Amino acid sequence: MKKVNKKTELKVSHDAELQDYIIEATGKSRTSVKSLFAHKQIFVDGKNISQYNFNVKKNQLITINSVGTSYDKSDNKLNNLKIIFEDTDIIVVEKPSGMLSVSTGKGNEITAYSLLRNYVKTESLFNKIFIVHRLDKSTSGLMLFAKNEQAKRILQSNWNSFVQQRKYVAVVCGKVRNESGTIISYLKENAAMQMYASQNAEDAQRAVLYYKVLKSNNWFSLIDVELETGRKNQIRVQMQEMGHSIAGDKKYGGKPSSIGRLALHARTLEFIHPITRERMSFSTKIPKKFLIVFDDKT
């Protein structure tokens, strides 16, 4: 376990009570600020202050020592759900393939949400977790969760402006001839809840992605994918449309492979922190299984 220390300094512009001034200056929720007081993370002119109603004067310096936690893979055993980063407002995790993001309502399913809900309650029964986006069950990779209502509301209301970059890595069937390209489609959902590409833009959602070939042979290609839009099953549908379905994707035309799973992984997530407004970026390695097909085929 590795602690990540972050220091925020605020020069007081007008007389006020300390808690109210921090809320006004940072946009943090009252709950988040109280947590900072409880953990002795607030200082005024270098002195630790624990009183919410402490009066601060113009030109005094408020320092907030925010401590996030960066976890090594061995630090948690949440059914292979790996915690990458955590602070008082958000949690970034790496979800394994085969795990639901949130329950479908069918029995007692183990989901990323349920595991994290139980995890945050080990510190306090009042703690909560909020899902702000999803990954398909068969897709692995990075996910962002909110830990309070304020962070959830900001992320859900401003998702496209707060998320700066979402990159995936995938193994697709066949040799992709062009080294890079852009796919623009209009996606719809049929009665069987399966997405498909439509030529009619009027009643469909515009979907845009960019791809780059990292490695290929006559049977498969390893590609880097960046999303401009985030539609349901977007990458899977657009790869099928291009004639290169994702390996192992039975739903969208993919052939079986020695990878043994859907070969799609959310590799990079870059976003603006909903409370601190800091730009944050997280990346994971290409799953080793994705490289098996290139070792096997020559």
List keywords for this structure.
eleven-stranded mixed β-sheet; Pseudouridine synthase; alpha+beta; elongated; four-stranded antiparallel β-sheet; 298 residues
What count of helical segments does DSSP give? 7
Radius of gyration computed on alpha carbons: 22 Å
The overall pLDDT average reads 87
CATH class bucket of the largest domain: Alpha Beta
Q: Count of DSSP E strands? A: 17
Shape: elongated
Q: Which structural class do you get from the secondary structure elements?
A: alpha+beta
The CATH topology of the largest domain: Pseudouridine synthase
Oligomeric organization of the protein chains = single chain
Order of helices and strands: EEHHEEEEEEHEEHHEEEEEHEEH
- Poorly predicted ranges: 70-76
Name the CATH superfamily assignment of the largest domain. Answer: Pseudouridine synthase
Taken together, the total number of domains comes to 3
* CATH-derived architecture of the largest domain: 2-Layer Sandwich
**Terminus-to-terminus distance:** 41 Å
Helix percent band = 10-25%
The largest sheet is:
11 strands, mixed
Q: What fraction of residues sit in β-strands? A: 35-45%
